Amino acid sequence: METLQHYIAFDLEFNTVGEETHIIQVSAVKMANGQEVDSFDTYVYTDLHLQSFINGLTGITAEKVASAPKLATVLDDFKTFVGDTPLIGYNAIKSDLPLLVENDLDLTGFYKVDVYDEAFARRSTDLNGVTNLKLTSVAEFLGISGHGHNSLEDARMTAQVYEMFMEFDENKTYLTQQEEEHGDNPFAALGGFFD
Predict the structure, then answer these.
(1) What are the pLDDT digits (tens) for 84-105?
(2) How far is CA 155 from the centre of its chain?
(3) At the top level of its lineage, which domain of life is listed (predicted)?
């Protein structure tokens, strides 16, 4: 997994009516050395009827999107927020990035880590056999709390899961170095304490 000290975790919420999908929330958190240093969060105007399912799932109401900025403004602001910072997401390669491209914002060149793919690869090791890889399930397994289907909360959970994965990798690297230096004797590293 690529290790990033500075990155942006992002997420979108969207509403699909018939054949049309409209972005209704864009959120991101900017991370530096394990700490959130900035965030981006806005609803997006749509005149399409919000499905009651979407309202119940996300808590986004018609009133929230009716007074929100239009998509072109939101995407311009989001592009400015991202700049040239690497991006991570949770299964964004299959939904969020294509939806942005469809709306004339191609950030695929900045996308570095799909945390869902990492979770899938780690399900039998770091995630101890977790079969449900929804973001909220993975986060809960790792002791991370958050409310799913709010894109700001999802972006924060994505960043926290990624941070945990980096910590797991760092610990594995340390253990490998210890084994190489001291063999498989668990007490060998203590040798200097008893002289």
Answers:
(1) 999 999 999 999 999 999 999 9
(2) 5
(3) Bacteria
Compute φ and ψ for 189, nearest 5 degrees: -70, -15
| Cα–Cα distance for residue pair 73/52, rounded to 1 Å | 26
Decide: residue 19, CB within 10 A, 0-12 exposed, 13-18 middle, 19+ buried. exposed
Q: Which of 143, 161, 123, 126 is nearest to 11 (CA)?
A: 161
How far apart (Å, rounded) are the C-alpha atoms in residues 191 and 81?
52
Closest CA relative to residue 10, chosen from 163, 158, 165: 158
pLDDT, averaged across the chain:
88
> For strand 87-89 and strand 6-17, is the pairing parallel, antiparallel, or unpaired?
parallel
Q: How far apart are CA 95 and CA 91, in angstroms?
A: 7
| Pairwise CA distance, residues 166 & 85, whole Å | 18
Residue for token digits 């990155």?
A: 7
